[in-house]
Amino acid sequence: MRKVLLSTAALLLVIMILVGGRAQQVNADVPGGICPDNLQQDGLSSPGNPFSEQIFLPFQLSPCGPPVVIPFYDQWATSGHNNTAAAAFHHWDAEGEISTSCAKCHSSWGYMDFLGVDGSAAGVVDKAAPIGSTIECAACHNDATLQLTSVTFPSGETVNNLGDESRCMVCHQGRESKVSVDQYIVDKGADADVDAVTAGMSFRNIHYFAAAATQYGTLAKGGYEYDGMAYDLKFQHVPSYDQCIECHDPHTLQVQVNECATCHTAVTTVEDLKDVRMNGSKVDYDGDGNTTEGMYYEIAGLQEKLYAAIQAYATEISGTPIVYDGSSYPYFFIDTNANGQPDPGETNYGNRYNAWTARLLKATYNYQVSVKDPGAFAHNSKYIIQLLHDSIADLNTMLSTPVDLSGAHRNDVAHFAGSTAPFRHWDGDGEVRGSCARCHSSEGIPTYHKEGVTISAPTTNGFMCSTCHANVGGDWARYVFDDATFPSGATATFGAGEDDNLCMQCHQGRESGVSVADAIAGKDVDTVAADLRFINVHYLAAGATLFGSDVTGMYEYAGKSYNGRNIHVAPFDQCTECHGTHGLQVKWDAVGLNCSTCHPVVTSADKLHDIRWATTPDYDGDGNTTEGVAGEIQTMEVALYTAIQAYAVATPGADPIIYSPTSYPYFFKDTDGNGVVDPGEAVYGNRYKTWTPRLLRAAYNFHYVMKDPGGFAHNSKYIVQTLFDTLDDMGVDVSGMTRP
Fold first, then answer.
1. How many CA atoms lie within 13 A of 486 on its CB side?
2. Cα(505)–Cα(454) distance, rounded to whole angstroms?
3. How confident is the model at residue 66 (pLDDT cuts 50, 70, 90)?
4. Neighbours of 292 (CB within 10 A)
5. Helix/strand/coil (H, E, C) string of 45-82?
6. pLDDT tens-digit readout, 635-657
7. Is 198 in contact with 190 (CB distance < 8 Å)?
8. Per the confidence metrics, is the pTM higher than 0.85?
9. What are the sequence ranges of the domains in the chain?
């Protein structure tokens, strides 16, 4: 006899299930006293009831008392967890028991065995489970689940610090992963040639409703993640709606649609959820030109493209046409008549697909991952989009006519690109350090607004609505700042309480001309100083450029005057008047007034670089007075880089220097002196070290201009002034140039 030891509360729920959920009579004087007549009547204690030998009652049965109604019974009784007719609970009827590999999620007894409720080791199902149960109250309500705080996924990755949602995640995690698919390919010897058909290979199926694997993204590695690519972490929804049981009723399992409508006002039914698309999703993922459709349809568009790529690859490379039927195991079959459709007679096990290559297996696995979580668009749409996009791109490398991805996007714009370096740089540390958290974590701005400082924060998957909006779901009010304090110590403002002061809390850089001046103070300008290092303004310091000399973003040479804030015409004089608030794109084609109103040359976003006034001087001295101001600046940038390299070669004690805009810390020793960045040179260990003050301030200004690609629009005169003075300081003949 196997005994299951349950708490009194859990036992009451168990008995409720076993006797059909009716109100049972409980003696008021004896806690937990159950009417024995009812137990006998309902068959609980009969020899034919398999549960009668498996429950140890931790109290004495007593005479009948007043009835007690078990909470949430009616909700649970009609849920998928109690669908007594479902194959999920009857697949093993012929065997008479549920195998250890399936029992955890297809019977209450297997689930409790996995948790160790029956006294066995936790984390494994060590005995086949009897048939006849569904997922009953005792499965989730017992002493073990009360202590459950971590869940391990099939990849071997463990998520810790969980709450009650962990009970759901034990099962809703799938059965395969990136790790297991890779291992299967290696075991089959298919890794040497990923496009060779390998005998004995079969489809790898993630299984059904792997919602937790979807939600936790690369933390769980449920999808097949291609080597060298970065993927989104857990999808962070707004607080109080970020766990399974906060969006799904824990007993009916239904999505609590009425709660969704708080923010998604158009949602009145579950079907309406497919149309949801928030301002953190501003790009066209599937390339169909529609950026307003719900994320469900973006995924559907990519699924269609991936299926086309799968079929094309199977025909061209594997040599055997393939079709998919999501309702027939094992899902992928030989397309015997090559018509591209799963016809009657094709979708049977005997016709299962058998011409697998490793590349095809990865792509079909991801296709199944996306299909078998019907709520993937809500659980973590961007992770699924990345899996689908990468699968198509990988198959495309072998197709004679690749599937068109030219209009499709894998990642979102900067604030919401959770898989990119600005949010993934600290994954190895486990948290975003305090000096970076204000702008690289979802909680940075709220913390800074409240406390006036930033502290270390958990790594995040990009910004959230609550990063900038203090009242999510209400009037969407933003956090209010009256001004911004820049690295130079100067403050600037668009006006007290103006929204765009919020943008400048981050878009101001991390260093300034003052930082450089302080570092080189008291040093001979042309003597290498061992204690100097490169000073990095950081990225996209647009606010510092816009306010120019008012905040001293660039290094300004003594005795020179520089342009302050660039005053553009109203109403295009603040960040969000020119840039989309969420998409960040320049609103060159806004309805009504837009860039082309004053600048007819602007007929597309890239034409912004051609803007110049008829009165604009030939700043760079190249004789071209029709090129855009951006072109004038670019010529001066090139001239400055040439001067930097020439100076380094000519200065005693200094090493030849090279620059890489994508590799920190950007300036490196040119080991072979050829003037270009060669493999192995742009690495931290080869960072440039032989700085003189003159070289450092020139490199700082050069890098500053490179890291604000919109500088020509933000404050072109300030940029040109500093470049002119830097070139002059570096010994370049600027007599043909014009300083504003």
1. 31
2. 12
3. low
4. 8
5. CCCCCHHHHCECCCCCCCCCCCEECCCCHHHHHCCHHH
6. 999 999 999 999 999 999 999 99
7. yes
8. yes
9. 8-147, 149-237+278-320+355-419, 428-479, 492-654+690-740
